[in-house]
Amino acid sequence: MTRRKLVLGAAATVLMAASLPTSAQPAWPTQTVKIVVPTGPGSSLDLIVRLLSDKLAARWGQPVVVDNKPGAGGMLGLDLAAKSTDGHTFAIGFNGPVANAPFLYKKTPYDPAKDLRPIVMTTSQPNVLAVNAEKVPARTVAEFAAWAKAQGGKANYSSLGNGSSAHLTMELFLSEAGVQATHVPFNGSPPAAMAVAQGTADATFMVAPALLPHVQSGKVRLLAVSSEQRLEALKDVPTLMESGFPGVQALAWNGFVGPASMPDAVVARINADVNALLADDAVRSAMARSGLTVVGGTPADFKRVIDADVKRWGPVITRLGLKLD
């Protein structure tokens, strides 16, 4: 599904959700709602949830608690959501633990296809190739590839976790460029970005929010984005396609998922309320300033995105021989 079709479909859903009568919504929640974030504070996922949590609490008339549970490439937090039974716990997921994990690990603590229920996609954004501005002299992707190749396998890169879109995008790029580098995974984008800023990691691929403060301080340089088109918020940063690597395209997406046992009415309520908030100009502007593109849409829309990622990245992971056990 193209981004244009996804956004147009989401817009229609947002308008429909905003017009739902109050009487059509279920008597939920009846207690505190917990949203599990499988990455640390300051990550793009944490930013999204905290931007929405107070507004959701106001709509629901119940407190909304944000519970950061980083670890195991996001699987620790997603496992909590998959096994929750209180009817009031769900999580924000991303590519790694929702779509890619089964291809990377012999065994996972949950089956994403069977144990997780898509609720609503929140945002989708490209990864950005970034390098340490002092240690790495490259100012273009081609120069970075040449520099990394000259390091004779000693270059390294950080990611926000094993199996994440950031990890896989870099591995795909290295394969296309014919370069070897060591992967250094972190629990979330803030420490992974900090590693590049401090020079303990040479480069990274990740979404923009955690990188921007280091770009502004001059410690990190952005070289390219992994989408088909340039980001509105980063117009001066070319795409990988423009930079000579058309085979490296990837989007990092986020969205709310709950346990498979979550009732239809609750899924519909969360979906409608999140879509209504994603249609708010202030929320959309805040997301855009952080390089996040609002999506929204139905649970079925989100499932199609997940299924498409499984179909696309499964063969790539197999071809690259990536295994994390």
Strand order of the largest sheet: 2-1-3-10-4-11
Along the chain, the helix and strand elements come as HEHEHEHHEEHEHEHEHEEHHEH
What shape does the CA trace take?
globular
Mean pLDDT: 91
Q: Percent of residues in helical segments?
A: 40-55%
For the report, how would you describe the main beta sheet?
A: 6 strands, mixed
Structurally, the number of domains stands at 2
Low-confidence stretches: 17-23
User: What would CATH call the class of the largest domain?
Assistant: Alpha Beta
Question: How many separate helices?
Answer: 12
Strand content: 15-25%
Give the CATH superfamily of the largest domain.
Answer: Bordetella uptake gene, domain 1
The number of strands is 11
Explain the overall architecture.
By secondary structure, the chain is α/β, with parallel strands linked by helices. It has two domains: 3-124 and 252-320, 3-Layer(aba) Sandwich (D-Maltodextrin-Binding Protein, domain 2), CATH 3.40.190; 128-234, D-Maltodextrin-Binding Protein, domain 2. The protein is 43% helix and 19% strand. It has twelve helices and eleven strands. The chain has helices at residues 3-18, 44-60, 75-82, 95-104, 112-115, 141-150, 165-177, 189-198, 212-216, 264-278, 281-289, 299-320, and strands at residues 33-37, 64-68, 89-94, 116-126, 128-132, 156-159, 182-185, 203-206, 220-225, 251-259, 293-294. It has a six-stranded mixed beta sheet, sandwiched between helices. Strands 7-6-8-5-9 form a five-stranded mixed beta sheet. The longest helix has 22 residues, at 299-320. It is globular and about 60 Å long. Residues 17-23 have low confidence and may be disordered.
